[in-house]
Write a structure and sequence with these properties.
The complex is a heterodimer.
Chain A: H1 2-100, H2 103-153, H3 177-184, H4 198-205, H5 236-243, H6 251-254, H7 259-275, E1 301-302, E2 305-306, H8 336-339
Antiparallel strand pairs in A: 1-2
Chain B: H1 4-7, H2 13-29, H3 31-39, H4 42-48, H5 55-69, H6 73-81, H7 84-92, H8 97-111, H9 115-123, H10 126-134, H11 139-153, H12 157-165, H13 168-174, H14 181-195, H15 199-207, H16 213-217, H17 223-237, H18 241-249, H19 252-262, H20 269-281, H21 283-291, H22 295-304, H23 308-322, H24 326-334, H25 338-346, H26 352-368, H27 372-380, H28 384-397, H29 402-410, H30 413-419, H31 427-438, H32 441-444, H33 446-455
Helix pairs in contact in B: 2-3, 2-5, 5-8, 7-8, 8-11, 10-11, 11-14, 14-17, 17-20, 19-20, 19-22, 20-21, 20-23, 22-23, 23-26, 25-26, 26-28, 27-28, 28-31
Classes of the chains: A mainly alpha, B mainly alpha.
């Protein structure tokens, strides 16, 4: 029995040992397995990291290259833009300065305008001076004509051999200019001055002469018997023939410009005239009453107008038309016979 | 009137003519008498007995119609209503120039009043006959026909177009060369009435090759020929820049400037307006006006003339010349125009229109003026609304130009600017601040200024 108890306790101790060993073995195994697994996990981790690293590197390299591309592109574009701006700047400056606001052309234009103005001004000045000269000449001529006319009228003041005229005084060294004029002029005859326009009135008043007289030059005048002028001149008849050649207009000129139009218009007018019922113009109402002509009756109209038989009386008196009720006040002494007029005692007079 | 009327129907033609002449003289004298003639029913009698009468009667009848028609539109309307226009047109076809003259004179007086009457005249078919009348050799007839065409075309573009369609422009243009002064007056006035309505009509007139012949009219001895010539050029120049350019190229500006210089009074007015229109179109044309020495005559007009409307026109023209660029404004300012304009603006005797025009001209020129010596005198007596612009110009110029700043102080301009009272926050105050900022603080203070004014030539370091 003791041995059984001792063996029990030995076995128990051994069992305990076994348990302890078992637990130790388990521990060791678990630790080892844990190590293995951890190593495996670590390995996996590493691999994963490696893969991820590689993949991310790849992605970002791609991204970066794109980034670089765009940055390069932008840089290029900026550069091109700047260069384009420079070109446009130059071009626009050139274009505006040459075509739109060309300073030198404007300057030349203004100079040209000034030159032209000077020319115009000088020409106008010349024209003005010419006009003034013309006027002066006209005045002078008029004065001369006046003086000549005066001289002709006063021709009798000319000095003779015996008697010196008033303009030729013996105390003067030379005669007066008026004297010279008198000597030159013909005496004025006492003919009637011609009327200004002889043809204006007489001819046109003739009922038959409706048109002014025209002088046609169709036939040239016969040549006078004078000396032929010296020199290589053309034959006179030839010249006259050429000069007075009658006009031979073409058909286009001879017909009026708007002849079809005119003819059509005339046609229309004729048709309208044909179709009209009467020729009196249609008068609007307001002037209707103004158109009435007075028709005198046959009874009282004679050859020379209306007959006044039975209407107007010789001694007719119309008291309504009298200015005042009373008779006029007499100033002069009355004439007896005429005082009786209207104041007779008979009824036939009827004035009383 | 009742006594004359039966005489018109008398057997003897001389009595008829004398009666008609008497009626005409009565109607000519007074409008009331003309009305009495119309009321006495004389016109229909005149009209219907006309076609078989001789030319003296026709002349006398046309004289009566003219005398009645000239007083008022109603009388002219009465004439038209009794059918006198057809009779006048028949007279226009007559071969005697005296009859034609009387008829066209009557037609002219009728057409003068308003556009309906002109239209009635045109409808009666008078225009082609008038154009034929212009070609006649008698000067008096030409004159009257030209003035009638002008009276017809002055009312509206359609009437002017009708006159042009009848071929009037070519004949009128030829007659500019005629030496008779009164004829030239009428012809130029007729052409200007045609040209004033539209660009096309003006171009038609120009195509008739009136330039440079018209410029000789500007040198004529007759004042009204000059005036009408200037009016014609003005009516052409006012439409488009191309027409103005054409006139400038033909030397028209120089001729007009000489014309302004040689005349006095209302005769100058169309020339001044023409320069204004030309300068208003573009800056090149304005520079052409300046180069042709246009500013001194305009300035002389401004000073010498007594009439307000001529001064107003001169002020407007100067404003148009100077408003384009600083170069133009400088040219105007150098001619010492601005003090004159200011004086007129502040003068109490000037009419409102004149004041408004000078104010606008001053404003336009001042906004572009960079010529400071001309602006200085204006500082001293300008009213506030002009002062704003002057000070504004100074405030733009002074920050950049040191010499100008020095001059500004020595001439007392800075002191004057200090004395201006402006509301804070207004534009004027801003300008004053800008000017004050150009100078150091001590300078701006009043005592320093007074010292400087007392000492005179004070050398300053800025």
């Amino acid at each position: 029995m003791l041995t059984s108890i001792i063996t029990f306790y030995i076995f128990r101790a051994v069992d305990e040992d076994r348990k302890i060993e078992y637990k130790a073995a388990v521990k060791i195994q678990s630790w080892f397995r844990g190590c293995r697994v951890r190593a495996y996990l670590r390995y996996l981790n590493k691999m994963v990291i490696f893969i991820q690293k590689w993949w991310r590197g790849y992605r970002s390299r791609r991204y970066f290259s794109k980034l670089v591309e765009t940055a390069y592109f932008i840089m290029k574009m900026n550069f091109y833009n700047e260069m384009a701006v420079r070109i446009q700047k130059r071009w626009r400056g050139y274009y505006v300065r040459k075509y739109i606001h060309n300073y030198y052309a404007l300057k030349k234009y203004l100079e040209a305008i000034s030159v032209n103005n000077e020319i115009v001004r000088s020409e106008l000045q010349d024209y003005k001076e010419m006009k003034e000269n013309e006027e002066k000449i006209k005045d002078l001529e008029k004065k001369e004509k006046e003086e000549k006319y005066q001289a002709r009228k006063m021709h009798y003041l000319l000095s003779t051999e015996q008697i010196a005229g008033i303009y030729n005084s013996p105390f003067r060294k030379s005669p007066d200019p008026m004297e010279l004029l008198l000597r030159k002029s013909k005496p004025l005859s006492h003919r009637q001055q011609q009327t200004k326009s002889p043809f204006d009135y007489e001819l046109y008043d003739w009922p038959t002469c409706k048109r002014p007289p025209t002088f046609s030059t169709a036939q040239p005048l016969p040549p006078t018997g004078r000396q032929k002028p010296q020199g290589p001149f053309r034959d006179t008849t030839e010249v006259l023939r050429q000069r007075y050649k009658p006009l031979e207009p073409t058909l286009r000129v001879a017909a009026s410009i708007n002849s079809p139009l005119e003819k059509a218009r005339e046609e229309m007018k004729r048709e309208e005239w044909r179709n009209r019922i009467h020729d009196n113009e249609f008068l609007p109402f307001s002037s209707y009453h103004k158109n009435q002509k007075y028709d005198p009756s046959i009874h009282r109209s004679g050859k020379y107008g209306q007959e006044t038989y039975g209407i107007k009386h010789f001694r007719e008196v119309q008291p309504k038309k009298w200015v005042a009720d009373k008779d006029f006040q007499t100033v002069l002494p009355p004439i007896v016979l005429f005082e009786k007029f209207g104041k007779t005692y008979s009824r036939a007079g009827q004035i009383v | 009137m009742s006594l004359l009327r039966p005489l018109l129907l008398d057997v003897i033609p001389t009595i008829q003519q004398t009666a008609a002449l008497a009626l005409g003289r009565l109607a000519n004298y007074n409008g009331d008498l003309a009305e009495a003639v119309v009321k006495g029913d004389i016109l229909p009698q005149l009209v219907c007995s006309l076609s078989e009468q001789n030319r003296f009667y026709k002349k006398a009848a046309a004289f009566v119609l003219r005398a009645v028609g000239k007083h008022s539109p109603q009388l002219a309307q009465a004439i038209v209503q009794c059918g006198a226009l057809e009779m006048l047109v028949i007279c226009l076809e007559d071969f005697d120039p005296g009859v034609k003259e009387a008829a066209s004179w009557a037609v002219g007086y009728i057409a003068r009043h308003n556009s309906e009457l002109s239209q009635a005249v045109v409808d009666a078919g008078a225009v082609p006959l008038l154009v034929l009348c212009i070609q006649e050799p008698e000067i008096a007839l030409k004159r009257i026909a030209a003035s009638t065409l002008g009276d017809i075309s002055k009312h509206s573009p359609e009437l002017a177009q009708t006159v042009v369609d009848a071929g009037a422009i070519a004949h009128l243009a030829q007659m500019i060369l005629n030496p008779d002064a009164k004829l030239k007056r009428q012809v130029l006035s007729a052409l200007s009435q045609i040209a004033k309505h539209s660009v096309d009509l003006a171009e038609l007139v120009v195509e008739a090759e009136i330039f440079p012949v018209v410029l000789t009219c500007l040198k004529d001895s007759d004042e009204y020929v000059k005036k009408n010539g200037a009016t014609l050029i003005r009516e052409i120049a006012k439409h488009t820049p191309e027409l103005s350019q054409f006139i400038v190229n033909a030397g028209g500006v120089a001729a007009v400037i000489d014309c302004i210089g040689s005349c006095r009074g209302t005769v100058r007015l169309p020339g001044i307006m023409m320069l204004g229109y030309v300068a208003a179109h573009s800056e090149n044309l304005s520079m052409a006006v300046i180069v042709s020495k246009g500013i001194p005559p305009l300035c002389a007009c401004l000073i010498e003339e007594h009439e307000d409307h001529i001064k107003a026109a001169a002020a407007w023209a100067l404003g148009q010349v100077g408003r384009h660029t600083p170069a133009h404004a400088r040219a105007v300012a150098v001619a010492n125009v601005l003090p004159t304009l200011l004086a007129i603006y502040t003068d109490t005797h000037s009419s409102e229109d004149l004041q408004m025009k000078t104010k606008k001209a001053l404003k336009n020129i001042l906004q572009k003026c960079t010529y400071l010596p001309a602006l200085e005198p204006l500082l001293h007596d300008a009213p506030p609304n002009i002062m704003k612009h002057i000070v504004g110009q100074f405030s733009k110029m002074l920050p950049h130009d040191s010499k100008a700043r020095r001059l500004f102080v020595t001439t007392g301009g800075l002191k004057k600017v200090q004395e201006i009272k402006a509301e804070p926050g207004s534009l004027l105050q801003e300008y004053i601040n800008t000017i004050n900022n150009c100078y150091p603080e001590e300078v701006v203070s009043t005592t320093a200024l007074i010292l400087m004014n007392v000492c005179g030539k004070f050398r300053l370091s800025w």
